[in-house]
């Protein structure tokens, strides 16, 4: 019979299973459901739902690219230059922390400037949409 490998130990080492019981149900319990521990996912999701605005500046992190909200005439120029319509651009949700930080509303276009060691700076454009 081949040996079956468990993914439980590596996940425990990474801290991904904190507060959860996996495997067989213990005596007295009919299902192996999560225990009501501090680190349970439901607790974290509720905490995120209550948070309206982030308490930190997302652009202070070195890996977050610069986001600029385009004015209507600038957005029109970009669309004419690439011969596209706004819905043909990649989307960004209006609830995205960077979109909220620049004050983007549904229908706006955001210019994202990324730095690269090979290309220098690259411009990307995102169309702001509601939740999809």
Amount of helix:
25-40%
**Main β-sheet, spatial strand arrangement:** 1-3-4-2
Number of helices: 4
Number of beta-strand segments: 4
Unreliable runs: 37-49
Helix-strand topology string: HHEHEHEE
Number of domains: 2
Task: Characterize the largest beta sheet: strand count, sense, and whether it forms a barrel.
Answer: 4 strands, mixed
Portion of residues in beta strands equals 15-25%
- Kindly report the average pLDDT value: 76
Structural class: alpha+beta
Outline type = globular
Q: What value does the Rg take, in angstroms? A: 22 Å
According to CATH, the homologous superfamily of the largest domain is: RPB5-like RNA polymerase subunit
Distance between the termini: 47 Å
The CATH architecture of the largest domain: Alpha-Beta Complex
Description:
The protein has helices at residues 8-14, 41-50, 72-82, 97-102, and strands spanning 66-69, 91-93, 109-116, 120-129. By secondary structure, it is α+β, with helices and mostly antiparallel strands. The protein is globular and about 50 Å long. It has a 4-stranded mixed sheet. 26% of the residues lie in helices and 19% in strands.
